[in-house]
Amino acid sequence: MVLSRWQQLTQWPMVAAAVVFTVVYAWVVIANVQAPDDAVPRLVLAAIWLIFAVEYVVCIVLAEARGEWFRTHLVNLAAVMVPILRPLLLLRLLRLVPSLRAETGTAVRGRLAIYAVATSVLLIFMGALAVLDAEQNAPGANITEFADAAWWVAVTVTSVGYGDYFPVTAAGRWVAVGLMFGGLALLGTVAATLSSWLIDRVRSRHGGG
To answer: 39-78 in b/e burial notation, b at 16+ Cβ within 10 A?
Structure first.
């Protein structure tokens, strides 16, 4: 079997796995499900991790240029290594939109903008779940509700940092570090897209004059 055929066969199952992971993980965290009641959902999450790991290994094996495939599919590796990033694979659905397949400058910028917005929403949602999972049962924690977690993630990603909420656990602080880097990357993408649009506008007006 060739890689393209494998990816075609697994595209929708992997999207479904990402959706199931997101729903189950959100329920476990927001409902604050504790042992032994969390045994079944945790088993489901572990099974989904195994699915992602197997799919990734098969892709590596089937790829002709394995080094190049590895470099251009780091998100897939991240989805295996860091569980909260698995919903990012839902962005694959955007590739199915016909208007986002064009390769003109305007279409590319539009695609980047849509990806940036979708990534921001997923980053805030999953970041809030991750920090709530780490913090809500910790002694002295001040992030104990999903709304508080979402607020903290939003101000952290945008580098505002009011300081009204903050993580007290090591895991929560590592989530904060990841969100800071993710926020910088998103802001850089938005700035680059805006700059490209402005340059094209200036060139268009200059050429028309």
So the answer is: eebeebbeebbebbeebbeebeebbeeeeeeeeeeeebee
**Cα–Cα distance for residue pair 100/92, rounded to 1 Å:** 12
Q: Are 108 and 30 in contact (CB under 8 A)?
A: no
What CA–CA distance (Å, rounded) separates 157 from 130?
A: 14
CB distance 171 to 141 below 8 Å: no
Instruction: Give the per-residue pLDDT at 209.
Output: 46
Question: pTM of the predicted model, to two decimals?
Answer: 0.79
Which tens digit of pLDDT belongs to each residue from 69-113? 898 888 788 878 876 777 766 666 666 565 555 555 555 566 666
Q: How far apart are CA 87 and CA 67, in angstroms?
A: 25
Reported in sequence order, the residue ranges of the chain that DSSP labels E, i.e. its strands, are none
Extract the tokens encoding 70: 């590895």
